[in-house]
Specification:
This is SRPBCC domain-containing protein. InterPro entries: ASHA1/2-like_C. Pfam families: AHSA1. The chain is an alpha+beta fold. A 7-stranded antiparallel β-sheet has the order 1-7-6-5-4-3-2. A hairpin with a 3-residue loop joins strand 6 and strand 7. Helix 1 packs across helix 2. The protein starts with 5 loop residues before the first strand and ends with a helix.
Length: 148
């Protein structure tokens, strides 16, 4: 029996794709809902980094940039040693829609994959933590965009 390899979440946001794209792909946008301090070189192969006052740091490598519909990066797997080369792949897909009550909107899907490469103990920590993390972070993204 295998482990789940991917986390997938979809939210509908009452903002046009351009607004959601900016929140996902700019330092200011990411700092408003995800990290506290953010740098990003928005091109395939570019580096991105998010840090928090807790001392935690997430280093990413930008993998795909197809404005305004696909943004993807790879990042370190929580719970593994810093020098471990394994990464998960995170892809955001934006789809324009018309929300009956709100007008222009975006269906945002995030898929994080690569957890199947982990042994039992590491899988439980990384997959469980990121499953909870995406639910929380996407809620913060929606709240940020709703307030903007």
């Amino acid at each position: 029996m295998g482990f789940p390899d991917r986390i997938e979440r979809t939210v509908e946001i009452a903002r046009p794709p351009a607004d959601v794209w900016a929140a996902l792909t700019t330092a200011d946008g990411l700092a408003a809902w995800f990290g506290e301090t953010v740098t990003i070189d928005l091109r395939p192969g570019g580096a991105a980094e998010m840090s928090w006052s807790s001392g935690d740091v997430a280093r990413m490598r930008v993998e795909r940039v197809e404005e305004p519909s696909v943004f993807a990066f790879t990042w370190h797997i929580n719970g593994l040693p810093e020098d471990d080369p394994r990464r998960t792949y995170v892809e955001f897909t934006l789809e324009e829609l018309t929300l009956e009550e709100a007008g222009p909107g975006t269906r945002l899907t995030v898929v994080e994959s690569g957890f199947g490469q982990l042994p039992d103990d590491a899988h439980a920590k990384a997959f469980g933590g990121n499953t909870e993390g995406w639910a929380s972070e996407l809620g913060e993204l929606v709240a940020h965009l709703d307030a903007a």
